[in-house]
Write a structure and sequence with these properties.
Elements (H helix, E strand, L loop, with lengths): L1 H8 L4 E2 L4 H10 L4 E2 L3 H5 L4 E4 L6 H11 L5 E4 L5 H6 L5 E6 L20 E5 L6 H13 L3 E4 L2 H28 L13 H6 L7 H10 L1 H23 L3 H23 L4 E9 L4 H11 L4 E8 L5 E9 L1 H13 L4 E2 L2
Parallel strand pairs: 1-2, 3-4, 4-5, 6-7
Antiparallel strand pairs: 5-6, 8-10, 8-11, 9-10
Helix pairs in contact: 7-10
């Protein structure tokens, strides 16, 4: 994020880490303009703060940043689970975040300014979120190539349990099962093809990060594991009796589901602008963003135009694709606020 902010936005970036070596590497890599000795020093005079620590430490470190940050500074995080940190802070300056981007490699020496190009970046605004600061963060993330998408923390953790945390669990199980298949006394690893390598790419991810993730989302992850066991039981039963039609239907259904998921990710089209007149009160922008996010409508860009007396204003949204724009218009109108296309 530091590299992207410096290279894409021309930002000045100062940072803190509890590892002096990490700070030295960040300076050498060109990720930071200044290495700081404390969180307070790092966030001083900042317009935006990104907290990147294991999720178990997020509530405390976000709190430390909020204690020092100015009143017009937006504070966010990049944690893979959101409920705990969002519940811990109802400060109008805090917006929970999670970029769906990463790699097997870790450390600033592997950092890339293009990591977020085209990546979904989940944001979890709440009714207390400042609309002005949410817009600033949205624009900043768009500027580094990401696609900010609003989602509530509960839904985020339930979805991520399925599409991120469960795959890590299954990858760990697969590699351990393959290793256990070794013949007694044979130290050679079994031959593996590309399917196995693809399925286990994330196995053994750093425990310093992933133990916290598993535990912080344990209820949602346990529910996904239970559902996986149930689905495995179903295909096992079909295999046990040699039910070819059931196996074929199971495989074909998976192919159709995968195609549907991919089509959803590739949806897009020309941009359409919506202008929404809203009163100037807390939570208005967050409500709009979350309502569209729940309906799967992605806000490509946004801008706020307050009235001179600050009593009301216009929220401009740009939506990709005519069907999505029409759906957004219907949803906003359903909230009882005026909406129009210029």
């Amino acid at each position: 994020m530091a590299l992207a902010a410096r290279e894409r936005l021309g930002a000045t970036v100062q940072g803190y880490d509890d590892s002096p070596r990490a700070l030295d590497n960040a300076l050498a890599r060109g990720a930071l303009d200044q290495a700081c000795d404390t969180v307070a020093e790092a966030v001083s005079d900042a317009q935006a703060v990104f907290v990147a620590v294991p999720v178990g430490a997020l509530p405390a470190v976000v709190g430390a940043a909020l204690n020092t940050a100015s009143q017009d500074c937006v504070v966010t995080d990049v944690g893979s689970t959101k409920r705990a940190v969002v519940a811990a802070h109802d400060d109008s300056r805090f917006v929970g975040g999670h970029p769906l981007a990463g790699a097997e490699t870790a450390g600033v020496e592997h950092a890339r300014a293009d990591l977020f190009d085209g990546a979904t970046w989940y944001l979890t605004p709440t009714p207390t979120t400042s609309g002005v600061l949410y817009e600033r963060l949205h624009r900043l993330l768009h500027g580094v190539g990401a696609q900010p998408t609003a989602i509530d923390a509960q839904t985020h953790d339930r979805i991520l349990a399925s599409v991120s945390h469960l795959p890590h669990v299954l990858a760990n199980v697969l590699v351990s099962q393959a290793a256990g298949a070794l013949a007694a006394g044979d130290e050679r690893l079994p031959a593996t093809g590309p399917s196995f390598r693809d399925a286990t790419r994330v196995a053994g991810a750093p425990s310093a990060i992933w133990t916290d993730i598993y535990l912080s989302n344990r209820d949602a992850l346990a529910a996904e594991i239970d559902q996986t066991i149930s689905r495995l039981d179903e295909i096992r039963a079909a295999l046990a009796v040699g039910d070819g039609s059931a196996v074929t239907a199971w495989n074909d259904d998976a192919a159709a589901d995968r195609r549907r998921l991919l089509e959803g990710q590739l949806a897009g089209g020309p941009l359409f602008e919506l202008r929404i007149s809203v009163p100037n009160r807390p939570g208005v922008v967050a409500k709009l963003a979350l309502e569209l996010g729940r309906a799967g409508v992605n806000i490509t860009d946004m801008a706020l135009y307050p009235a001179a007396d600050m009593s009301e204003g216009v929220v401009a949204l740009w939506i990709a694709g005519e069907p999505a724009a029409r759906r957004a218009e219907e949803l906003v109108a359903g909230l009882g606020v005026p909406v129009a296309r210029p």
